[in-house]
Design goal:
292 residues; alpha+beta; Pseudouridine synthase; Archaeosine Trna-guanine Transglycosylase, Chain: A, domain 4; 3 domains; 5-stranded mixed beta sheet; 19 strands; 37% strand; elongated
């Protein structure tokens, strides 16, 4: 069975599920999943698990992610990004200093109302399905964390092909579940003129950087990484052959001194991932055991 991880540089114009389908065809397996959706227009790091490694994707999916985002101010859209229809157009009078002064209120623990065009479920149905029917439903705010929000550039130019409105580029390091387009939208509202996400590129996810991602058109079977890479950000516990036998049966292990303070560990024997264990009092108990 094909088992492991691939890291794709997703091109624009494809859904994350389109990439899953391409990987299924290349590796001739149906068992493929990804560790966090990228919108169709977004590009960048998309981590995929194959075979038994799909069981590890939750550990990659819920980690923080890093993005490069371009914002266009003065125009709001139905999708909060450049793919939507224009909703409003307002003049912008803020300066770069005003923009910098507004950023701190979006740092740390904040709440976001997810956009209508999103995969969030309300009443058992994805919001984007309701949006296609023209429905507008009330959405509860969700907690997210913005760890870093850096302004990389700011410009206002009548010769800019993106338009004469102010444009800014940001680096965003945020918790899983953050909608960067909603962050941009809310920032635009705080500045009084609205905004939408012009472009988005994910440059880090699940411990993988953009330099490690393979363009989809160049992806080959040889790019498959071992299952251990799916949990590369997790503390590692190397065990003896005796403990490896215990892990294969899902039995508890005593707390390892070198893993003190960790809540979860990747249990490894001779370079192979045996499973993921979580701390429970003075011992480790099985959370995921990889079939041998």
């Amino acid at each position: 069975m094909t088992d492991g991880v691939v890291v794709v540089d997703k091109p624009g114009g494809m859904t994350s599920h389109d990439v899953v389908d391409e990987v299924r065809r290349l590796f001739r397996t149906r068992k493929v999943g990804h560790a966090g959706t990228l919108d169709p227009d977004a590009t960048g790091v998309l981590v995929l698990g194959l075979g038994r490694s799909t069981r590890l994707l939750d550990y990659a999916r819920f980690g923080p992610k890093r993005y490069l985002a371009e914002a266009s101010f003065g125009v709001t859209t139905t999708t909060q990004d450049a793919s939507g229809e224009e909703l409003s157009r307002r003049p912008c009078s803020f300066t770069q200093a005003d923009l910098l002064a507004a950023l701190p209120r979006f740092l740390g623990a904040i709440e976001q109302v997810p956009p209508m065009v999103s995969a969030v479920r309300v009443g058992g149905e994805r919001l984007y399905a309701k949006a296609r029917r023209g429905e507008l439903v009330e959405r509860a705010a969700r907690p997210v964390v913005i760890h870093e929000l850096k302004l990389l550039s700011f410009s206002v130019s009548n010769s800019d092909p993106r338009g004469a409105e102010p444009h800014a580029a940001f680096e965003v390091y945020c918790s899983a579940g953050t909608y960067v387009r909603t962050l941009v939208h809310d920032l635009g509202e705080a500045l009084g003129c609205g905004a939408h996400l012009y472009s988005l590129r994910r440059i880090e996810a699940a411990g993988f950087g953009a330099a490690e991602a393979v363009p989809l058109a160049k992806l080959r079977v040889s790019h498959l990484l071992p299952p251990l890479e799916a949990v590369r950000g997790m503390p590692r516990m190397d065990v003896s052959a005796e403990d490896a036998a215990r892990v294969s049966h899902g039995r508890p292990l005593q707390t390892a001194r070198e893993s003190a303070g960790a809540e979860r560990v990747a249990v490894v024997h001779e370079g192979l991932l045996l499973g993921v264990y979580r701390r429970e009092s003075s011992r480790w108990v099985a959370e995921r055991v990889m079939p041998s």
